[in-house]
Each structure stands twice: as structure tokens, then as C-alpha cells.
Amino acid sequence: MTQTLSRRALLLTGAASLGLAACSINSTSEAADAENENNEDRYADSKWRQLTEDDWKARLSAAAYGVMRKEGTERPFTSDLNNEARTGTYHCAGCDLPLFSSDTKFDSGTGWPSFFDVLPGAMGTKPDRKLIYVRTEYYCARCLSHQGHVFEDGPAPTGLRYCNNGVALTFRPA
């Protein structure tokens, strides 16, 4: 009997936790949706939005196309940008929009370039449900190219870790 109650309590606790998580995701996603809309609207008439998939295939390497247009992920520790330490700006490899300042880059130990903040108006986000749990995908606000995922395990001051595919970035030294 005790074992049955323990299982029931565990199931109820799990269900309650999922319900709370869903409420939390919905409340934060409403604010994020409004910000995404503003960022995306800023570039709605951009020539980058008019490119066809064939245009993107011609512009990008096969690896960049797979990540940026098909929402793939490059293998960890394969990008030279992971170890880039110079002062400068990281740009979208698709449309050259500045996305990150080197001041926000940090070594997350994950094998991908990581940043704790983005430049204002540079990104949009959306839920990514490809795995068992929901992650937050972010993408370039101008050309809508996939960049990576943002996690809440980064350093101060934001507590965020923008885990970026290096192939989706170019670096411009200051």
C-alpha cells in the first residue's frame, strides 16, 4: 500500500511540475513573442527575406546551409570561432547582421561559441520541440537563419548562454 501511495504521489508531483513549467513557458513566451515580432518586423522588407532555398544553397557552404536553413547542429569543437579571443563583433554568416559583441563571449566548455547576451534587435526566438523537452531556438532577426539555442545556465549578468553554431557566424575584429 505504501509503495502504491509513493508512486501516486510521484506521479502527481510530476504532473504538477509539468503544469507549472507550462505556465512559466507561456508567460515568458508572450513577452518573447512581442519582442520577436518587433525584431522581425524591423527587417520585414529586407532583401534577405526574398531569397529562395536555391539562393541560400548557392550563398552558403553545405555545412552552413544545413545549420542555418535546416536548423541542424554542427559537431562540437569543430569551429575555429570557439577559441576566438580577439575584440570584435560576431555577424550572421547569412546576411552579415551584427549579432554578438566579443565582450559577451565566454568559454562554456560545450564546444560551441557561447555568449551571455545578444546585440539589441538582432535575434528572434521560438520553441524547439525536436527533443523530449522544449528548448528555445534563436535565429537572426533579419534573414531568419537558425543560429543556436539559448539556455538559462550562463554567467552573470544575464544568466543566459547563447550556444551558437560557429558555422552560422563570421567574426570581424575591431
Strand order of the largest sheet: 3-4-8-7-6-5
Per CATH, the class reads Mainly Beta
- CATH architecture annotation name: Beta Complex
Structural class category: alpha+beta
In percent, how much strand structure appears in the residues? 15-25%
Distance between the termini: 68 Å
Uncertain segments are 1-5, 10-34
Order of helices and strands: HHHEEEEEEEEE
Radius of gyration: 19 Å
Number of domains: 1
Q: Which range best describes the helical content: under 10%, 10-25%, 25-40%, 40-55%, 55-70% or over 70%?
A: 25-40%
Number of strands: 9
In the CATH hierarchy, the third-tier topology is known as Metal Binding Protein, Guanine Nucleotide Exchange Factor, Chain A
CATH superfamily: Peptide methionine sulfoxide reductase
Number of helices: 3
Task: Using the alpha-carbon principal axes, give the shape.
Answer: globular
Average pLDDT confidence is 82
Biggest β-sheet description = 6 strands, antiparallel
